[in-house]
Design brief:
Blueprint: H1 2-127, H2 133-147, H3 154-170, E1 175-184, E2 187-196, E3 200-205, E4 211-215, E5 220-223, H4 229-239
Antiparallel strand pairs: 1-2, 2-3, 3-4, 4-5
Helix pairs in contact: 1-2, 1-3, 2-3
Length: 256
């Protein structure tokens, strides 16, 4: 009986040892599989992180590339614009060069022209109705002196000559009055002068008893009848802003 019991215990012990050994044999491969799985998962995570980083960097590069492309297009448009400006400036410079080349020729033409214009102006004043003669002839002499002044530019000289012509043109319109004296039959008579453009130039004595009209054909003063005394008086008052503008009867020389 005791022998059988020992055998059973020994068998049980052997079975326990065998089971324990078998469990160790099975457990080791499972652990290895789990470790490999964990390592594989970590490796996959790292790979995904690398892929994400590379994708982000790629997107940044794509954005930078597009920005560079857009900037290049803008620069191309700007460069084309600048090129057109440069071409326009070159054309302007060439035009200026041509103009500069003709300045001396222009001066050679303008200077003789100004002398002729002044001579013509003087002849016109002498042939015109003799109002403000001293002032007008003084303007002519001033222009002659101006042409001899080396400190004044040719353009300024020409401008002042044109101004003198403009002033003379202005005398053809408007109404004006002044005072002076006339020599009639060897006597000096104080008179009021009145002028309506270049149409009529009349004079009336201070006592308003005598009146005259300038005859530009005969270059002398012609006496007027009494019927013109009041109209001329009215004309003088209108010219001095002492009366409102109105119709007046004046002696007018018709064209022949």
């Amino acid at each position: 009986m005791s022998v059988k019991i020992r055998k059973s215990l020994v068998a049980t012990a052997l079975l326990g040892a065998t089971a324990f050994a078998s469990s160790n044999v099975i457990a080791d491969p499972l652990n290895d599989v789990q470790k490999v799985g964990q390592q594989t998962q970590k490796a996959a995570q790292k790979s995904q992180e690398k892929i994400d980083n590379i994708f982000g960097q790629t997107q940044e590069l794509v954005g930078e590339y597009r920005s560079v492309v857009d900037e290049t297009e803008l620069l191309k448009v700007y460069n084309d614009h600048v090129e057109r400006l440069v071409m326009d400036q070159r054309a302007g410079i060439e035009s200026f060069d041509r103009q500069i080349g003709t300045i001396e020729k222009t001066k050679q033409d303008v200077v003789p022209l100004m002398y002729r214009m002044i001579d013509t102006l003087e002849q016109f004043i002498k042939a015109d109705v003799p109002f403000d003669t001293e002032t007008r002839m003084g303007r002519v002499e001033k222009l002659r002196g101006l042409l001899s002044n080396s400190k004044v530019t040719t353009s300024e000289k020409f401008r002042q000559v044109l101004d003198a012509y403009t002033i003379e043109t202005g005398y053809s319109s408007g109404i004006a009055a002044s005072q002076g004296s006339l020599e009639i039959s060897g006597k000096n008579i104080n008179v009021d002068f009145a002028r309506l453009g270049r149409i009529a130039y009349v004079a009336q004595s201070f006592d308003m008893k005598h009146a005259w009209v300038w005859n530009n054909d005969s270059k002398q003063w012609d006496a007027l009848g009494e019927e013109y005394l009041k109209p001329i008086k009215d004309m003088i008052r209108i010219a001095r802003n002492q009366a409102a503008p109105d119709l007046v009867a004046l002696p007018i020389f018709g064209a022949e």
